[in-house]
Model the fold of this input.
Amino acid sequence: MITCALATVGLDRCRARLVASPTLRVAVAEVVARGKDGSLLTMRKEQPATGVSGTEMFESQFASIVRAAQLREPYVFV
Done:
């Protein structure tokens, strides 16, 4: 969530919600972005919640944000 905020509108203007529940059967990553021009971008990915989720879910979401924002420099978060 912090990464998305830093890569887009900043910490003060970004709103995020983290939901953790042992009853969930799927891991969900969802991003909703609203543009100044009224545009709306919604991305959602679900995958079975078996064991520890790999990094591919976050990397996929972040790569979509980078492409949508047409960022020039590659961003790498470790």
About this structure: Helices lie at 2-7, 56-69. DSSP finds two helices and two strands in the chain. The mean pLDDT is 76.
